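Anyone have tokens for Glucokinase? Sequence:
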Amino acid sequence: MTDNTVNNFRIGVDVGGTKIEAALVDATGAVLNSARIPARHGNAAVVEDIVSVARQAAGTRFDEVSAIGIGTPGTVDSATGHVGNIVNLDVVSLDMGPEVSRLAGVPVHVENDVNAAAVGAAVLLGGADGLDGTIAFLNFGTGLAAGIVQNGVLLHGYSGAAGEIGHIPVEPHRLKCPCGQYGCLETVCSGAAVGRLWPNADPPMPDLIRCASRREAKAVDVLDMVVRAIGDTIQILAQSVDPRLIVLGGGMAKTGEPLVEVITAELRRRESQCRFLESLDLPARLRLAPAGQPVGAIGAAMAA
Ligand SMILES: [Zn+2]
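Reply: yep, here.
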């Protein structure tokens, strides 16, 4: 960081199903400016939009940008920058990293959106200990997946599948999963799954918790099933990588404190039966993903 003060700016781009957001950040991850545009469909439009929103966020400082980081849905090969199957944007196969780099004239790094958000949450929530240790980010979105950041570095694994815990089957006699297995965690405790199990409201989770707190029988049953699956998810993550912080993110986490309360109650119930679990004190490690900040864009920039 001594002779590198000129090119310390990075741009993070968060590609979503309906919008693309970019943030200009400094070396610490602090946001200097941001921009967002509606997402268009198809390879060429996606590449053009990423570069265009990146230029908007950087403004006159674009020439001082050392790298662009992108977080995107789909199947991402972060080593090559290739992305497959961004369903909402009609992208089947795209060399996103190389094409954006060619158009923007800047090195580009691509991560999947959950991994990018994990880095962003780690930067924003790391506190006095910064990026030390392991921080796990649980994304309760359309699917269920985790991003794992160790001392500021993403854990990808051998094939890029580290953190894909949504397809661990824990209830063999329950619901069929689109992946082909039965009883995957994702069939019960992803945002989309809760929407199917509790179709009475949008968003479903705050309403489900409210109805369960009024002792409505059906709500109590559904919430119990969902929260047990969340408890299993958290234990699998916690007992595999022993993270310092467990961040709850994705659409369902916007439920906020009521969600933290029901998860805490479930973990405390389990602790009361298990001294080992009690010694881990997992409720103390739970955090909500920061609201009102471009977490995915910040993380994409810092992972670049
Ligand atoms: Zn599955």
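The two ends are 16 Å apart (CA to CA).
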